[in-house]
Amino acid sequence: MEGMVTLPGTRQRMGLDAILGLIPIVGDLASAAIGAWIVWEARNLGMSKFQIARMATNVGVDTAIGAIPLVGDAFDFFFRSNSRNLRIIRRHLDRHHPATVVIDQPR
Fold this sequence. Notes:
single chain; two-stranded antiparallel sheet
């Protein structure tokens, strides 16, 4: 969602979340729905209420500030709520299901 392509001449990655944020209302709602789905799946994994609350806060902040014209578009570019949430899920899986550990490849 947030790191599909690298901007030419930079090492900054941009993805669908920032592009959807350019579409008023509908783009922000679609992005929020995808973020909420990730939180729902984390709940299905049996993650703690604290972790779910942190993830929901990430999605809420991204949605609330992302809805502000222009400022929200820049915020979406730098605040990567889905990546933060996936890191929370990965830490949970590494701790509670060590057999599922995957070694990351450097980009």
